[in-house]
Amino acid sequence: MLSERRLEVLRAIVQDYVGTEEPVGSKALTERHRLGVSPATVRNDMAVLEDEGFIAQPHTSAGRIPTDKGYRLFVDKLAGVKPLSSPERRAIQNFLDGAVDLDDVVGRTVRLLAQLTRQVAVVQYPSLTRSTVRHVELLALAPARLMLVLITDTGRVEQRMIDCPAPFGETSLADLRARLNSRVVGRRFSDVPQLVQELPESFDSEDRGTVSTVLSTLLETLVEETEERLMIGGTSNLTRFGHDFPVMIRPVLEALEEQVVLLKLLGEATDSGMTVRIGHENAHEGLNSTSVVAVGYGSGDEAVAKLGVVGPTRMDYPGTMGAVRAVARYVGQILAES
Question: What pTM value is reported for the model?
Answer without folding.
Answer: 0.75
